[in-house]
Structures are given as structure tokens and as C-alpha cells.
User: What shape does this take?
Amino acid sequence: MQKNEPEAELQRILKAVSRSFYLSMVWLPPAMRRGIALGYLLARAADSVADTSSAPAAERVAALEAMRAAITRGGACPAAAALAEAQPKASERELLLRFDTCLNLLGGLPEAERAAVREVLDVIIGGQLWDLQYFAEHRAVQGEADTLRYTYAVAGCVGKFWTDLGCITLGNAFCAPERRELLTEAAVRYGRGLQLVNILRDREEDARLGRCYLCGDPELWMRRAERWLCDGADYARRLGSFRLRFSSVLPALLGVKTLRLIRTSRPGQRAKVPRRAVYATLLRALFLSVIRRGA
Assistant: This one.
């Protein structure tokens, strides 16, 4: 499919705001790319608004609610562009300025794909609103259920979306119909595992901001994240094509490397996989994706 100018521009922004996700997305079968890219960019725009620390929480809540309404019903969303200049990164400023372009492209998706994108964004933005409102009253989650709720709302639901969109656009070429439910459950765990990696990596910074997303021993969550990433790698290797397996397994491999770095990082040092290790991980993902694991 030849890209028109708005879609080519959005792909450029996607590459700027997330190196690892872009590496995965470009390997997807063409039928899935537009829905996945739009879902990611809309979610990333909402995340940028939620994280705009220079804006009062009430303003961010209002902007997120306006963004969710625009995604659900269509139309423009001036509230997103209004917070663009408050973003420290140029790529995120540009993304918010192009939010209405993303909405227009969303409106051009086939109905079933559009519904899947809207469903996952409703859950994600709901999770971001919960985050803003919850930590206005608490400095830490009150129990494991809160952590599980949050990790589903911001990432576990993305695993379900990925599976739903794959089945919508590729049918049986994505996975066998009788395996869809089990694969969806694995995809939800995978998403939660990836979000736990982010939480574990950023927990010192989050604590300075008055947020703690984990209760109990972080090592227990580290082991849970590893287990769920293994579930994610298994999920990826059961998908129906090399492209699907490669693009789906790569985040799991990068997540495992990040966890290893978290374990060995000094206090105040943020774990980040070096570029050379990213390339080595690409090669490992290629190797693991050549042969499909038994359905």
C-alpha cells in the first residue's frame, strides 16, 4: 500500500517517539500496520498529555476527556494542540499538533478496525484518568489489585487489541480460531509484563513524583514480569507468519534485556538497552521467528 502524505508524516513521528515500537511495527503485515500505528500514536498523544507536569491535573483531566470523546465520536480536538508547547520533546509537541490528523486517519479505517482502535483507546485513557485522580489522594497503590488494574488499562488491553486487530485484518492467517481465546489471554499477560518493565525501570523517578505503582517486594514483580514476557514470547511464536512472529517477539526480548539491566543498575541510573544490543536482539528475534511453534 502506497503511503499518502499524512500517513508518511505519521510514520516519521512514530519513528521519532518510539524507536523500539517502530522497529516492531514496520515488520507487521501491511494490513495491520495502519490500525496498529494509529492506536499507538493516539495512545502516545494521550500519555504525553497525562504526563504534562507543568499543567494542573484538572487541565490534563479535561484534555484527556476531550481526546477520548473525539476518538469515540470523531471531530477535532483543540485541547490536544493546546498542550503541545508544554512538551519538552519536539517529537511529542509535533504529535499533539498532529492529533487531529490522526483522528482523520482513524475515521478512514474500515468500521471493524476503527471500533477496535476506539475500544482500546477508551480503556487506555480511562487508565490515565484513574492514574491522575488516584495519585491525587495516594502516594502508593493500596494493593496488588490496583497494580493489576493499572497494568491492564495501559498495556494489557493492548495485547488484546493486537490480537483482535490481527484477527480482523488477517483472519486465520493470524491464528487459528480455536486458539484465539488462549492467545488473547497470553497477550494480556504479555502487555502487563511490558508495563511492569516500565514501572520497575522508572520506579525511582515515579517515587520523586509521588507515585508508587507496586506494593511489596519489587523482586517479586520482577519475576512476574519475566514470566509474563516469556508468555509473550510464546504467544509471538504461535502466530501465523514470520512477519507477525518477528514483530511480536521483539518487545519481549528487549524487555528481558531491560530487566537484566535494572537488576544491575546503580541507584539513580536508568536502565536502557544500548543500540548495539538492540541490533543483536533483532538478530535473535529473526532466528526465533523462522519456525512457527506448534499451534
Remarks:
- The mean pLDDT is 91.
- Residues 149 and 222 are 17 Å apart (CA to CA).
- The longest helix spans residues 144-170.
